[in-house]
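Subject: Protein record for review, amino acid sequence with backbone structure tokens
Category: Structural biology, sequence-to-fold work with a learned token vocabulary.
Format: Residues in single-letter code; tokens as whole numbers, each standing for a residue.
Body of memo: The sequence and its backbone structure tokens, given next.
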Amino acid sequence: MPISYAWIFHKRFKMLKQKCLQAIWQCSALIVLASLLAFSINYLRNERLHLFGNWTPEARLMDSSGKRLDISLPEAKKLFLQQSVVFIDARPQDDYEKGHIKRALCLPWNEVDRNFMRVTEDISPDTPIITYCAGETCELSHNLAIFLLDMGFSNVRILINGWALWKEEDLPIESGSSTAGQG
């Protein structure tokens, strides 16, 4: 009795269909179990990851109490002219030496652990501080501002795109190294 190719094809197709359905079921079960495990672990953590929240750029520029950290160029200029603020450049040392806001200190974000104490030793915790870097998407000044707040400085602001805006307005700049900020 000859074997029909249609019958063999039908059998193989049926086996393949069963294996595919089994794989889909197993993948679905793994995804559900992994999700349950992840949510459970997140729930048990001391510092939970928030699943829902305000993730807008504006919200990113707020401290834990909801106060906005960014400062406008006119406000920063006013404080600069009154000499009532300390500017801290979060860019790398080489960029700082090429040019920076006049009287700004250099505290590169990538070297903050090494230079923090030396750069900030003469700054009181309530002194207004403005951090800046280059570019609207530069995170260095934001990271430095959050770090300074965590270290006890209470009046820290961020001048977004600070270096570029400051130069565009022909506000006072200087080049070279800062004694306080050298590493």
Q: What stands out?
A: Residues 5-44 form the longest helix (40 residues). Confidence is low (pLDDT under 50) at residues 179-183.
